[in-house]
Write a structure and sequence with these properties.
- Helix 7 runs antiparallel to helix 8.
- The strands form six sheets. Strands 21-22-24-23-25-26-27 form a seven-stranded mixed sheet. It has a four-stranded antiparallel sheet with strand order 1-2-3-4, with no helix packed on it.
- By secondary structure, the protein is an alpha+beta fold.
- It is built from eleven helices and 27 strands.
Length: about 525
């Protein structure tokens, strides 16, 4: 009755799935009492998520595990006898990352379960069954921080149930895996490797306890962002797109490292063919620490060489996220709507972004704002110097961390750059409040600021834009969801009230009171 969180076929008649247990006696009592109290992190009374079996023929459900924690992922071995499962052991793990998830090996025939890797050195995030043996591939998060994994890269291990040992797979690639799981082959796996704004597609062939990397070759491999390999080990589906080419799925024959006979499989959004789309390209400039920074630049629909245009920054969240050379049109970042109105759009992959290696991702730990803001400002300067952008017509927007950095751009330094408009979607202004209210407050803030507010309240005041909002002259619209637990709505109220009371951010073309009303969150 609570829904299924993960499922996989065991055989033609049987599904294995994860689901929370049905209502407990305690819950029934609370419902009968009409008690609507929400107890935070109530591990004693939160139903466990367990492994179940469902028979298609008999329509019978059988519970296969008796764990008291919350299973979140699993994979079935090639011989169908074993299940490797990832168990979350703490309802507040996201908040403070104190109690790490663990991996169990469940033997379906023997009906036994055993915890693996008790030393806690492997932080497993995804599980994939191998095809060349009865083992599993483990995607793990790796960071140099002793506790927090806010910025990390994805590494890969091979687990052999017979020896119960996990062997690291040498990817020969410093940046690690891109998001997602490997696609097992009969002799290893296919995988997307993290490579900045574009992934690299590789095939790894196993010989004993080593794997050899081979680069896939084909028409679309430079901009492949998702793939799936069929049961025959030869039929490959992959998604191809660019920042100015909407995505389609293709089918190809995998012949060694060659993608043969590629053919378009889908016709998604055919109406896009008749619509004007912004030209886009990956650009690079020198950012903070004189290090290279990438971004995606979208051109105005009516672009004419030699003319200067407005610029709208669209800053991604995370911060350990990234913008790619892939189609990304959506309600939160309506790129083409802005380009249609005659402006450039820049999506910068600032320091702290993912897909550029561990050093780049971890670089802002304890230095939050200090590298990202210079990265973005130097990207703006780069476009101004190229003669593309009018320095007097700049705007910035983003959601979550993109909103946080957009807000910071309007308060940074003794004389902030004069942006003409700010769209702030779920952005923080007071970090002490965030530490206590956000779903992941302690793990995020302790990591990126280096301390908790209880340890250094002055640091949190110094880092919080709230105490600098008297500097802001930028007409601002603030968006929030009333049920947002990542960036709670209180942050929007603080932002709104400060700007309202200062009364200096009204757009000149509208009455000040009306403008202030338009800035309220929704």
């Amino acid at each position: 009755e609570r829904g299924v969180s993960r499922f996989e076929w065991l055989d033609d008649d049987t599904l294995l799935f994860l689901a929370p247990e049905e209502a407990t006696h305690y819950e029934a009592q609370q419902k009968e009492k009409k008690d609507a109290t929400i107890v935070v992190d109530d591990e004693e009374h939160t139903p466990p998520v367990r492994l179940f079996q469902y028979s298609i023929k008999s329509k019978q459900v059988t519970r296969l595990s008796s764990n008291q924690d919350w299973m979140q992922d699993f994979a079935i071995s090639r011989d169908k006898n074993k299940v490797l499962a990832l168990h979350n052991r703490s309802l507040r793990y996201v908040y403070d990352q104190e109690v790490k998830p663990v991996v169990y090996l469940h033997d379906l025939k023997a009906g036994t379960s055993k915890q693996l890797f008790p030393d806690g050195k492997l932080l497993v995030t995804r599980l994939t069954a191998a095809r060349e043996a009865d083992g599993f591939y483990l995607t793990t998060a790796y960071t140099t921080h002793p506790k927090y994994v806010n910025a990390s890269i994805n590494l890969l291990y091979y687990f052999d149930p017979a020896t119960e040992k996990a062997t690291p797979v040498n990817l020969e690639w410093e940046n690690g895996l891109a998001d997602g799981c490997p696609q097992p082959t009969s002799d290893g796996f296919l995988v997307l490797l993290a490579n900045g704004a574009r992934h690299k597609v590789a095939r790894y062939v196993r010989t004993g306890t080593t794997w050899k990397r081979l680069w896939l070759e084909g028409t679309h491999v430079s901009n492949t962002f998702d793939l799936a390999l069929g049961p025959d080990g030869k039929t490959l589906l992959y998604q191809f797109n660019t920042a100015d080419t909407p995505p389609q799925w293709y089918r190809a024959n995998l012949n060694g490292v060659q993608l043969k006979d590629s053919a378009q499989l889908t016709e998604i959004n055919p109406q896009f063919k008749a619509r004007v789309k912004a030209k886009a390209e990956v650009i690079r400039w020198k950012g903070a620490l004189d290090e290279e920074v990438e971004g995606i630049l979208y051109y105005p629909h009516n672009y004419e060489a030699g003319k200067k245009y407005p610029l709208m920054l669209m800053i991604h969240g995370g911060p350990n996220g990234a913008d790619f050379d892939e189609w990304a049109e959506n309600w939160a970042y309506p790129t083409n709507l802005i380009c249609e109105r005659g402006a450039f759009v820049l999506k910068p992959n600032y320091h702290g972004s993912s897909n550029y290696g561990l050093k780049f991702g971890e670089s802002i730990a304890g230095k939050y704002y200090e590298l990202e803001i210079p990265d973005i400002e130097k990207g703006v300067d780069f476009l101004i110097a190229k003669g593309l952008v009018d320095a007097n017509r700049l705007g910035t927007m983003g959601w979550s961390n993109g909103s946080i950095l957009s807000i910071a751009l309007t308060t940074w330094g003794p004389t902030p750059r004069k942006y003409k408009v700010l769209g702030a979607g779920a952005g923080d202004v007071d970090w002490t409040s965030d530490w206590g209210n956000a779903h992941f407050g302690a793990s995020f803030d302790n990591y990126y600021f280096g301390k908790a507010p209880l340890d250094d309240p002055e640091l949190y005041i110094k880092k919080s834009p709230f105490f600098k909002l008297d500097k802001v002259r930028v007409p601002t619209i603030i968006f929030f969801g009333t049920q947002d637990t990542n960036v709670p709505t209180q942050q929007g109220w603080l932002h709104y009230r400060a700007l309202q009371q200062e009364g200096r951010t009204s757009a000149p073309a509208r009455p000040s009171a009306g403008c202030r009303r338009s800035c309220s969150r929704r």
